[in-house]
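TASK: fixed-backbone design
INPUT:
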């Protein structure tokens, strides 16, 4: 069951994550529509083919952006890194961060590796062809488009939605965090999912 976590539900999420599984089943976080996003995909990284399903057994935190993003991506990845930094070593072994670049023309594997390593070692950068990225973006409801910048050395920017997706160890999309979600909310969601998975 997927949960969308807008800012005004932050406190509700924090409270529900601290409750028992029984109470969590009766929370009132809004449901998404019946046609829910998410799913497996395959892209490429500097390590070769990247398949989301290869991380079964781990919590995956998924974010879409690009390396030359001036503000939104660095902010979101810094928040994600802060949440990861609060995890214990044992918890961290069960979590993988994934940054999907929607700017394949500029974001080479080396660029992506350098970019994500700046934020946290548990992040991997992946990308693909324009067609492959469009398919993955559609799976997760991600919107992005090029915007020409006439007076910039960059040439163009990429407008894109800014959501962090939490995928459970069994591959299901569980939480969606919009931009500006506090790191403690993401942290508690990670721990909630890890605890629920271990208790099975």
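OUTPUT:
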């Amino acid at each position: 069951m997927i949960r969308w976590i807008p800012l005004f539900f932050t406190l509700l999420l924090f409270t529900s994550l601290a409750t028992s599984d029984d109470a969590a089943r009766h929370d009132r976080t809004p449901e998404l529509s019946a046609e829910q996003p998410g799913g497996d995909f395959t892209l490429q990284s500097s390590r070769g083919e990247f398949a989301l399903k290869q991380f079964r057994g781990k919590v995956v935190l998924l974010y879409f952006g690009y390396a030359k993003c001036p503000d939104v991506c660095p902010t979101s990845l810094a928040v994600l890194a802060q949440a990861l930094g609060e995890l214990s070593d044992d918890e961290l072994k069960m979590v993988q961060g994934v940054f999907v670049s929607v700017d394949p023309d500029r974001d080479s594997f080396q660029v992506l590796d350098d970019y994500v390593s700046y934020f946290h070692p548990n992040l991997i950068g992946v990308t693909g062809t324009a067609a492959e990225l469009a398919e993955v973006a559609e799976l997760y409801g991600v919107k992005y488009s090029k915007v020409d910048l006439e007076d910039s050395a960059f040439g163009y920017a990429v407008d894109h939605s800014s959501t962090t997706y939490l995928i459970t160890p069994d591959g299901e999309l569980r939480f969606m965090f919009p931009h500006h979600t506090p790191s403690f909310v993401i942290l508690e969601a990670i721990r909630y999912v890890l605890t629920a998975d271990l208790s099975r």
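COMMENT: The longest helix spans residues 183-198.
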